[in-house]
Amino acid sequence: MNCPVNHHYQVIIVGAGMAGIGAALMLYENGYKDIKILEAQEEAGGRIKTVPIQNGFIDLGAQWIHGTNDNCLYRLAKKHKLLADEMSEEGSGLYIRDDGFVFDSALVNEVNFELRKITLECEKFVNEGSFPTSVGNFIQEKFEAYIERGASALEMKKELYDWHIKFLLVDNSCCSLQDLSAKEWGRYITGPEHVNLKNGYKSLVDLLISMLPTEVFKYNSSVSKVCWSKDKDYARLHCVNGEVYDCDHVIVTLSLGFLKHSPNFFQPQLPCRLSVTISSMGFYGIAKIFLIYDDKWWNTNGFQIVWRRNTKLHKSRNWIRYITGFDVVYNQPNVLLGWVSGEGVPAMEELSEADVGKHCTELLEMILNKSVPNPSKVIRTKWMSSPWIRGGYCHITPQCDKTKTGPLTLSEPVFVGDVPRILLAGEACNAKHFSTTHGAFESGQIQAQRILDYLK
Question: How many CB atoms lie within 10 A of CB 260?
Answer without folding.
Answer: 16
